[in-house]
Amino acid sequence: MLNIALVGAGTMGQMHAANYSAIEGCRVAKVYDVVSEAAETAAAALGAQAISDVAEAYAEDIDIVAVTCPTPQHAEYCCRAAGAGKHIFCEKPLARTMQQGEEIVKAVSDADVIMMVGHVVRFFPEYATATELVQKGSIGDVGMIRTTRMNTMPQGSAGWFQNYELSGGVTLDMIIHDFDWLLWTFGEPQTVYSRSLYQHMPTLDYSLTSIRFASGAIAHVEGSWADLSSFRTSFEIAGSNGLIEHDSTENATLTVQQRQAEQGLAAVQVPSSPAKSPYLIEDELFIEAVAKGGQAPISVEDACESLRLALAACESAETGKVINL
Amino acid sequence: MSVNIGMISFAHMHAASYATSVNANPQANLVGIADADAERGRKMAERFESRYFESDEALLDADIEAVIICTENVAHREKALLAAEAGKHVLCEKPISISVADAQAMIEACESAGVQLMTAFPCRYGPAYVEAKQMVEAGELGEILAIKGTNRGRNPGGWFVEPELSGGGATIDHTVHIVDLMRDVTGDEVASVYCEMDRFFNPELDCDDAGLITMDFSGGCIATLDCSWSRPPHYPIWGDATMCIIGSGGNVWVDLVSEKLNLYQNDKSSYTWVGYGESMDYALIADFCRCIEAGGPVPITGYDGLKAVEVALAAYEAAETGAKVSLAS
Q1: pLDDT at A268
Q2: Are residues B156 and B224 in the same domain?
């Protein structure tokens, strides 16, 4: 039995914890949160122990630390976990700064532990299928790629998402999903230019990023925390031999509206997928990698490159400069 | 009263739609057509029940008040100057010119001749755009913070892909419509332009067929525009014209070609979209005629045409240099 310490009991932490409960061979043993009531509530629901000192997450009886706290603390918790020889699952983005990201990569490499970062979009079937079609050459050489990811402004514990210094806004926190999928599917980026509305946080954030890849392909990445609707995504990939289009609003297999739920949308909206939950796939693959001692399907190095691209977009939006990578 | 109109050239495919709009308009008469391609000119004169004139000069001598110019882009300047000299008002197909100097010469010639110069930006008359602009003017969206635009299409072929006639490729063809709407809706000018440009979909071409333009407006609004000919040959429609406007008080999406039916036919392997929206070209022509008749100023000027094409030209410069290009406002 793999014992997991959950560090961060917010929306994403609770979601991963529920998945771990459903996966054989692992269990959430301890829950930590800076807000002790949050840890206690989550721990009670999981039949786990709430801990008030995070050091207990790195104790002898723990195999895995799942870091699902706000981004700025990722580096500290991941490095301590690696130092204690624990395997690590960490939510995206890997870290708030490049220095922190590189520290994590080094700590994980030095400790020789297994780490996976939650770039879950790779497990969303529409994105995975598109990647497969591109790799099979179904649309020839890829030219223009357009992605859209739209959400309401998330709240989070003490409103940390709404603070650009902490979350990096929609560009670092949310469309890093698209950056990761783009790097995974289309390879190395060369040039980034981005404009965003990060100055308008906490009211809203919106970003438009232009990327040129080494392959020659051009991508347009749209991220919105200015939306007033349910979470939605879309993409299109135009190649020399055709076009792939997807729009989550046009491909719903199940649409539910409840009269009692009219008062509003969730504080942190998580996109759903009609098939098996991509988050469960992600968690299963990670647990399997740890159980069998194999490679995690998304390496910490990949997550570090996605971070590099997202931070380059942030820098471009902040300075107005074209960034050559 | 009605306005007598002559048409100079059917080189641009929009000419047929304009001719249809003139004929459908009880306030306008299509007096004649001149075309350097005499065969095309005669054919179009017959199709639109008008008269073919052997030369531009002959058409300009006829009993007309205004001309619609639909030549290859490179010839807009010459024809507009001829019309101005003859004292005729001008409606010029977009882009107004292939250089800022050409557009300036057209504006000056029409000004000193005392004739109107209007740039053909029919998207201004799209009902969805008109309503969005009213919302903006009423303050319902607050401050306009960002606009994401698309004007994607297909390679139109012909002279459109000969830069010496068209001035470029997809970027000069498909930048100006949406940039004009962005200028109109924000009331601001484009301050800087960055562009990634390439030729992806039609490797045989000598011009760009993909462009992604990123802009800052003078009032602080940020914007992007995809002007690529990225629609495949079997796509159900030629392309699109859209804007997503993010305001401090709300968001609005404008889709100028969304009114459509899906048509599936047994003898075709893909379906097509059949539009049922109002004709923006009809509204454009009607407004042009109304202004000519009223002797009043046209709502979309030569200067509007110039400012839009200036952005397209800056995009070429940015793509060439890899740097952001600043524009004086």
Answers
A1: 77
A2: yes
